[in-house]
Design goal:
Elements lengths: L3 E4 L11 H11 L4 H13 L1 H5 L4 H11 L6 H14 L5 H12 L3 E6 L5 H13 L4 E4 H4 L6 H11 L6 E5 L2 H9 L3 E4 L3 H10 L2
Parallel strand pairs: 1-2, 1-4, 2-3, 4-5
Helix pairs in contact: 1-5, 4-5
Length: 204
């Protein structure tokens, strides 16, 4: 069996939020001042891991609201979910092209993503063609743990039918890379499609 490459999704294949996305979400949340926006984003990220691991959207946004002493109506929560999901739904064409190349070359591909449950059907509907190149799509919201929890790496390796040491993991976050190495994987911080091609060539 050829070596397997396990990719993170956001910040590697999928694009991260643009400044325009951030301003839209802030507007929906009613964050008018810079200080309000700063508190909002601190709460957004500090409380994100349970949401990635399967927490319902309403509970996540209630926790964000409580942390910043705000009150989000049901309508506002619905609009926040919509804006948030839209902000994470785009992919990098250069990486999509690379995924196709790797699959055509016979490499086994896996995906390990911290992703909220509401986004999965949106992302799969929009990007199903290239996601089909992956042998397994392992989502934090599905397995109940998020990177850098070591169990996430063991689960994706098991789904690929491989030992962790047979997998090369690519992620944009240093903490996730260090955890993957501790779990037994070879792992590298993502820099560019060219870097991934060089890593693949090094696999022999």
């Amino acid at each position: 069996m050829p070596p397997a490459i396990v990719f993170d999704l956001f910040g590697v294949i999928a694009l991260t939020q643009t400044p325009e996305d951030l301003r839209r979400i802030e507007a929906v949340a009613g964050m008018r001042a810079d200080a309000d926006a700063e508190r909002f984003w601190e709460a957004y990220w500090a409380l994100r891991e349970p949401y990635d691991a399967g927490q319902p959207a309403a509970d996540y946004w209630a926790a964000v609201a409580a942390r910043i002493d705000a009150g989000f109506s049901g309508e506002t929560v619905g609009a926040l979910v919509e804006a948030d999901m839209e902000s994470w739904s785009n992919a990098d064409p250069a990486m999509v092209e690379l995924i196709g190349e790797l699959a055509a070359g016979g490499l086994v591909l896996g995906l390990l993503s911290n992703i909220v449950g509401d986004l999965v059907p949106i992302f799969e509907a929009k990007h199903g063609e290239w996601l089909a190149h992956f042998k397994t799509l392992t989502y934090s919201c599905e397995i109940g743990v998020a990177k850098p929890d070591h169990r996430a790496y063991a689960i994706v390796a098991d789904r690929l039918g491989l030992a962790p040491g047979d997998c090369l993991f690519i992620d944009d976050r240093e903490a996730n890379i260090l955890a993957a190495r501790e779990a037994g994987m070879r792992a590298e911080v993502f820099r560019s499609p060219a870097q991934v091609r060089e890593l693949v060539a090094s696999l022999g």
